[in-house]
Write a structure and sequence with these properties.
This protein is an alpha/beta fold. Helix content is 41%, strand content 17%.
Length: 341
């Protein structure tokens, strides 16, 4: 009797030991937002769920390239944040999974439109307009005129004073490229970019890096999403954000589940959780001042409002298509990147 009981207990112990310590498992996440909000989201999610998040932070372009390279054997479950164009490109290449979250009805029209245009293979999580941030102390000391328009960035005195990211690695910079093409026409936009190249000191890998450099006084101006400039102002740096007078594009920061994700259910749990109003209302605590996609989420008072900015009717579908994106990037490499200072 004792032997039978002992055997039963041993068997039960063996069976229990086969169950992972975290029964809910893991989530392999790419976060394409600023590292501070990435860490906050990871921490908040792990506190609320018995799921370990293995997070990698990278730019939107890098995230797309990684997911594409791993298509046959996905290492990533979910891609959160980053500009919408590469998310749309991944969707069109069938790299991401269709998913209709029960939270969809709570989202803004622009967030739902992003989902619909991709066959529900992505969804909008935040939005923000493109512009720039400049260091007011540098401009005052050197006597530079405040640049209010795209045309003003070509001023000769700004030679070597501007930074922008490389559009091959950065969704921010690709949005800038696509916006200028839509504002000016492709040939005129590339003429403009070739002239602007004279004033560019560095093409960074990350989209937010240029305004961080401006905040530190390493450059005078960074072309970025305006909320990234506002974040530096909120940190106490002498940075002023500008929405260009000719008009500007905007991003719909997006989220996508990777097709063939090994932790599919956990990816869906993050997906639904990150669309909740209380989660999106927390973004401001990480100095993240985008417009949230949930209509019930609190909009940070510092967030640049779309109604105060001259926005173009940005064509997300066209400029998120692989062929269009490839053609623009190849032309940029040939005509701008190849002659970069």
């Amino acid at each position: 009797m004792r032997l039978t009981l002992l055997s039963t207990l041993l068997f039960a112990g063996t069976a229990l030991s086969a169950i992972p310590a975290h029964a809910a498992g893991e989530l392999n996440l790419i976060c394409a937002a600023d590292v501070v909000i990435c860490e906050q989201m990871k921490g908040d999610f792990e506190k609320a769920h018995d799921i370990k998040v293995n997070m990698v932070r990278m730019s939107s372009g890098e995230a797309y390239a990684k997911i594409r390279a791993e298509a046959r054997n996905p290492k990533t479950d979910l891609w959160w944040a980053g500009t919408g164009d590469p998310h749309l490109q991944a969707a069109s290449e069938n790299l991401t999974q269709e998913y209709k979250s029960p939270m969809l009805d709570q989202l803004t029209d622009w967030a739902k439109s992003q989902a619909e245009s991709a066959g529900y293979k992505t969804v909008g999580v935040y939005a923000g307009a493109l512009g720039w941030g400049y260091n007011t102390e540098i401009f005052k000391t050197k006597g530079y005129k405040e640049p209010k328009c795209w045309a003003d960035l070509l001023a000769p005195e700004l030679k070597g004073e501007i930074q922008i990211a490389n559009p091959n690695s950065s969704g921010t910079a690709y949005t800038a490229l696509a916006s200028l093409v839509q504002i000016m026409g492709e040939d005129k936009a590339f003429d403009y970019l070739k002239k602007l190249n004279t004033n560019i000191s560095q093409y960074t890998k990350s989209g937010s890096a240029p305004v961080k450099a401006a905040a530190r006084g390493e450059t005078a101006l960074g072309i970025v999403f305006m909320h990234d400039a506002v974040a530096q102002t909120a940190e106490g740096f002498p940075v002023k954000s500008v929405a260009p007078c000719e008009g500007t594009g905007y991003e719909i920061g997006s989220m996508s589940i990777v097709k063939g994700a090994k932790n599919m259910e956990n990816a869906k749990i993050w997906y639904d959780w990150s669309l909740k109003p209380e989660v999106q209302s927390r973004m401001k605590d990480a100095k993240s001042f985008q417009l949230p996609s949930n209509k019930k989420a609190e909009i940070p008072k510092e967030a640049p409002r779309f109604e105060d900015i001259k926005l173009i009717n940005y064509d997300f579908k066209t400029y998120g298509e692989p062929a269009k994106r490839k053609a623009l990037l190849e032309r940029w490499d040939k005509e701008v990147g190849a002659v970069a200072n």
